[in-house]
Write a structure and sequence with these properties.
- This protein is 30% helix and 24% strand.
- By secondary structure, it is an alpha/beta fold.
- The chain has one domain: P-loop containing nucleotide triphosphate hydrolases (Rossmann fold).
- The longest helix has 18 residues.
- The radius of gyration is 19 Å and the shape is globular.
- The protein starts with 5 loop residues before the first strand and ends in a 12-residue tail after the last strand.
């Protein structure tokens, strides 16, 4: 077994004088696909920010790629909550991907020459092919569909060959077909590149067939394990301290139903 990519023990975060979550124990291995789930406001995006070193934990231990959070960020690909590209945006999709290579230093790519520029072009072309975007990568990003834009943003996050990919609601605002295709793409990246992925999601259903583990956050704690072990009535009832039912509709979609003051719902939109 390789060293964990992410490991937390008893981690907790406080913001604005309140505890967002506490007692979080997580172990993520290389090449695993993990979903971060929970009701609105429970701190799913906050968990990614802790891993990036942007927020200090209030308690417990957090290790990312064997180092303190923030120390190994160059080995992390990060896709924040979806950005909307105006239809008139003329920057090409391939230039959006190139920003992941050295955009933090140079901004919009310039026509540099030399060995470094050649290596950048080769890597950008490689990841564009990996996400299946070669047919439209030369087009303006504003003219592409939501699914096409998201594939190029994932390519941007992959361009530096990360060991960990953090994706914050990458399926949000995509239609069902694109949710399924992007979910399958992310699993393919996990397996072919041996990249660990932690993906924040509101609805587990599009990604459920592809997941290795689920981290389910609540204000009172967290549970991590295989989806079939975590997304159950018994587990979620114990986690929230109130009766919760987990149902499947005729298509196999999960519906998590709680009391009126609990909103851990999935797949009911």
């Amino acid at each position: 077994m390789s060293a964990p990519v992410v490991e937390t023990r008893g981690a907790a975060v406080r913001r604005g004088g309140r505890t967002v979550w506490s007692g979080v124990d997580v172990t993520v291995q290389p090449g695993e696909f993990v979903a971060v789930l929970g009701p609105n406001g429970v701190g799913k995006s906050t968990f990614l920010q802790v891993l990036l070193g942007l927020i200090e934990p209030a308690a417990g231990e957090v290790s990312v790629l064997g180092e303190r959070p923030g120390s190994a960020n160059r080995r992390i690909g990060y896709l924040p909550q979806r950005r909307a590209f105006d239809a008139g945006t003329r920057v090409r999709g391939i230039d959006i991907v190139r920003l992941g290579w050295d955009g933090d230093r140079w901004g919009t790519p310039l026509p540099f020459r030399g060995a470094r520029a050649k290596a950048a072009r080769a890597r950008v072309d490689e990841v564009v092919g990996l996400v299946g975007a070669r047919d439209y990568a030369q087009r303006p990003i504003g003219q592409l569909s939501g699914g096409e834009q998201q594939r190029l943003l994932i390519a941007q996050a992959l361009v530096r060959r990360p060991d960990l990919l953090l994706l914050d609601e990458p399926l949000d605002s995509l239609d069902v077909t694109n949710q399924a295709s992007v979910s399958a793409l992310i699993q393919q990246v996990c397996r072919s590149q041996n990249v660990a992925v932690m993906l924040v999601a509101h609805d587990v259903n599009p990604i459920l067939p592809y997941l290795d583990q689920v981290l389910y956050l609540s204000p009172d704690g967290a549970v991590m394990g295989a989806p079939e072990d975590v997304i159950t009535a018994d587990t979620l009832t114990a986690l929230y301290g109130t009766p919760i039912d987990v149902l499947r509709d005729r298509t196999g979609r999960l519906v998590v139903v709680g009391q009126p003051d609990v909103t851990p719902t999935h797949g009911h939109h």
